[in-house]
Amino acid sequence: MLKGMLHAAFDQYVFTRVDNILNLAGTNDPGYTKTGGEVSAALDRVLALARALKAQHPELLDLVMDFEALTALESGQAAEIAYRQGLRDSSQIRQEFMTFLQQQYD
Asked: What are the residues whose beta carbons fall under 8 Å from the beta carbon of 18, sequence distance 6 or more?
């Protein structure tokens, strides 16, 4: 039970931290901001086209909305995977660095 609570707390921490990092990137990283603007503009164009074609293809608007939601989810999951791997890597790098330092003083 404690293990489950710790996993849930850690998962919530990772989710919150990744969200914070991405929000900071949106305000502090010009490349990320530019890409976000381009994605938003492209989505706006696709939505406008889907609305214009609604009579001929009523399913198109729902498909575009589903695609947008799924790509956002995929992007968030990719960021979370990368963050978790970074945590694992930092622990391993620290261990290797400590081993290296010990070898230098032996």
From this structure: 76, 79, 80, 83
pLDDT category at 48 given cuts 50, 70, 90 is very high
Residue boundaries of the structural domains of the chain: 2-105
The tokens describing 42, both together, are 């492209």
d(CA 57, CA 50): 8
Tell me how far apart the alpha carbons of residues 49 and 61 are, in angstroms, rounded to a whole number: 9
The residue to which tokens 């502090």 are assigned: 28
Residue 89's alpha-carbon distances to 2, 24, 97, in angstroms, are: 25, 22, 12
pLDDT tier for residue 61 given thresholds of 50, 70 and 90:
very high
Integer Cα distance of 22 and 20 in angstroms: 5
* pTM (two decimals): 0.74
Tokens of 17: 């931290």
